[in-house]
Amino acid sequence: MESRDDAGAEREGAAPAPESSGAASPAAEPTTGPASGETPAVAGPPDSPDTTRRVDTAEAARGDAAQPRHAAFDPRAGAAPTGRVPGPPPGPAPADRAPVSGRFTTPGRGAGAPSNGVPNTYDLSSAQLLRPSKRPPQTGWRRALFVGSGGLVNPGESVGDAARRELIARVNQPLHGCYKIAMLSLKGGVGKTTMTTTLGSTFASLRGDRVIAVDANPDRGTLSQKIPLETTATVRHLLRDANRVRRYSDVRAYTSQGPSRLEILASEQDPAVSEAFSEVDYRRTVTLLEHFYNVVLTDCGTGLMHSAMKGVLDVADSLLIVSSASIDGARSASATLDWLDAHGYRDLVSRSVAVINYVRRSSGNVDLDRVSDHFAARCRAVVRLPFDPHLEEGAEIELDKLASRTRAALLELAATVADDFGRAGSRVRRPVLPR
User: Fold this and answer.
1) Most buried of the four, 5, 217, 262, 389, by CB within 10 Å?
2) Cα torsion for 349, 170, 383, 181, to the nearest 10°?
3) What integer is the mean pLDDT of 173-177?
4) What is the CA radius of gyration of the chain?
5) pLDDT over 70 at 276, yes or no
């Protein structure tokens, strides 16, 4: 039968085997030394793999981390080996026991977004909080089904609705400063004034900023007849009272506003007086208007040599070259581009948009694809506008009365023009020569 000293030495020399019983074994009594004739047991180094294991720092923070296993340590008894005090070993912690970087960093207080694909519970953005849903349809049977079901059945928007929404987003591109557009054509009767009103109305109805159209036609322009007339004041009266204009409400007394929020500054109706509208007068007008408006459209006359035209071309950011769907209309529009190239406005031509107006479903023998290709080689873009009975009337223009095809073409035109808004004011302006 073995003595107590032999049993204690045997317990210190080897780890105990697991017991089948659930009762805790009594703690070993301290011994004074090994029995005679036996080699004393040597405990492993404090940080050796036999005596310690890595402790998870998150478990340690919660207080439920498992205790380090030492030799002859029974976790069920909760007693430490004889002659040893449990605790961290002296000296710096080894590398495999160093805390994991970022383990205690709270998301939203310096920690970045989780990279393991787990949703960030601290993110309160709309994308995280709102359930994904389909956009309600705007047209067609989808709209009828959505309205008829009281919104319970939502088939989603159609391809056409999605395309229209993208065009509207392009029209609403940010615009810093004032963007000036000049409408040109050497041929009369191609719908230049109508184009000025419809394009300006499209911008004004979709954008939140102010849009104004200026009649710079020296031959008794008809721009003021395209919207309800609110005042008889003209651009000549505005220039006369320019020193008293301090705020937007002061300018508003000289303009008329249509249902789309487009404002029009009319020209003088007396041809003898309107001839006196010079380059300096136009520059003064635009300099005044650009403090209160973000988009300024100028309806020019058919003549390119009158005095105001030089001022129009020098301050414009882009041009709209208007052509009819006929051979003589296309030739006149091409001649307009030739004149601009020959007089030093090649940079302006490259930023211009050609508009083929009054396109009918059957244009006779005119190959409009070839006409479009001709202008596409010289201009930034080409847009066709269909024939519309409401525009043919020549009366006041209301966008709601236009055919759906016409409204879609105008939206495409406005988006094409707005694609150049980022370059507003980037042209090198010609200096005003003293007279």
Assistant:
1) 262
2) -40
3) 91
4) 42
5) no
Looking at the domain 176-423, which fold is it?
Rossmann fold (3.40.50)
From CA 294, how far away is CA 212, in angstroms rounded? 8
CA nearest to 23, candidates 70, 65, 74: 74
Angle at 342 between CA 336 and CA 346, to 5 degrees: 80
Nearest to 216 by CA among 293, 321, 296: 296
**Residue showing tokens 């050609």:** 354
Domain ranges for the chain? 134-171, 176-423
Tokens of 174: 């940010």
Closest CA to 333 of 182, 180, 184, 181: 184
The residue among 324, 323, 411 whose CA lies nearest residue 363 is 324
Give the helix, strand, coil percentages of the chain, each rounded to 5: 35, 10, 55
CB 277 within 8 A of CB 235: yes
The DSSP letter of residue 209 is S
Count of helices and strands (H, E) across the chain: 16, 8
Q: If you average pLDDT over residues 354-379, what whole number do you get? A: 86
Within 8 A by CB and 6+ apart from 57, the residues are: 99, 100, 103, 104
Instruction: Determine the angle formed by the axes of helices 327-342 and 368-376, rounding to 10 degrees.
Output: 10
pTM above 0.70, yes or no: no
Q: What is the pLDDT of residues 70-116, one digit of tens each?
A: 455 454 555 445 555 555 555 555 555 545 444 444 444 444 455 55
Question: Which amino acid is it at 390?
Answer: H
